[in-house]
Amino acid sequence: MENKIVSSGTSLYAQDHEARSAVRDRPVVFYVQPLIARYRVEVIESLNRLFCVKVFACSEGMEANGFSRERPDCEEFVETRIAGLSSRRIRMQSRVLTRIVLERPDAVLIFADVRYLSLWLALIAGRAIRVPVLIHGQGLYRHTHAGFVRTLCYRIAVALAQRYVCYTEASRRSLVRIGCPARKLVVANNSLQVSSTVEPSAKTGTENGVLFIGRLRENSQIEGLIEVIAQLHREGCDIALHVVGGGEHAASLQRRYRDRSDVIWYGALYDDDTIAAISRRCRVGCYPGSAGLSVVHMFALSLPPVVHNRLRQHMGPEPGYVEDGHTGFLFRRDGGVAALAATLRRAWALPPDTMREMATAAHAAYCRLNTPTLGHQLAEIVEASLRA
């Protein structure tokens, strides 16, 4: 805002005061997450444009689990605790219910983990005091047969909620399949924004790198990928693995493979410029285990992702965005290391022009998933619910 006097004689100070008052007059929305990962900051920024946002999340132990500690710009950041109940199968997030009941926000947007007692209490309280609660989650894409208890939980949760915002179309179909009313289900394709992308024109199709990006956790199965890289090396293939990520297994993996010259470890990086620079040395991305949003990050870097073909066994439904031979490569999960090796051989055998075409398709998928961004979609869904 320019430093000037407006025609009525009101000073800049008065304008700022009015702006702050206008912010407070906007609808109040509680945004509840177990933690605020970096990719959720855009969601909060987008919600902030329409609402007065109060964020509820737990920051304890984030760095040890491979996440950066974020403090997004919002009206209030409410630090919560997450406690395990009943042998840790049931969880409770503190301060959520109390604040909903005492403050009666205009809406609540909360993550849809039915193991959280705090989710159920928020849904019940919202219904009792007429505060619309929207839940945002993966649905039941992992379950061909959900079972009676799980089906009942999801049907009740959707019934109590104003809307269930599904991560992907596969998530929506999974809830329709168990009898949830379609009118309550809306899709906002789960995605992330990357501040430094790589244009397809920057790719040659002859890069010798494979990029792993994501948390080094249980079920990342990076050990199998490292074994494949060694095998292809022995076959005379010019290939190297670049590993970007932290997490509970990072230190032990680096110690175990410290003598491998074809594996380059960068640790947990959060600077998109640095990650983009590393990715320019790579032909494809690969997350051999249970993947999630890392495939979208690979798309942003014009790297066709290599992931396994069993969507239900991924961490999230986002690997469903990968189209084999077009935006990326799928390998048979039940084929193990041999199937992954065959897929990387296939990628290395393709002509550079074909690889550049796939890089273009991958980057186009990223652009499509972010037009509009996830945050804009969620803000519009909340706004529509307030008008309903």
TrEMBL record:
<dbReference type="InterPro" id="IPR050194">
    <property type="entry name" value="Glycosyltransferase_grp1"/>
</dbReference>
<dbReference type="Pfam" id="PF13692">
    <property type="entry name" value="Glyco_trans_1_4"/>
</dbReference>
<dbReference type="Pfam" id="PF13579">
    <property type="entry name" value="Glyco_trans_4_4"/>
</dbReference>
<dbReference type="InterPro" id="IPR028098">
    <property type="entry name" value="Glyco_trans_4-like_N"/>
</dbReference>
<feature type="domain" description="Glycosyltransferase subfamily 4-like N-terminal">
    <location>
        <begin position="37"/>
        <end position="189"/>
    </location>
</feature>
<protein>
    <submittedName>
        <fullName>Glycosyltransferase involved in cell wall biosynthesis</fullName>
    </submittedName>
</protein>
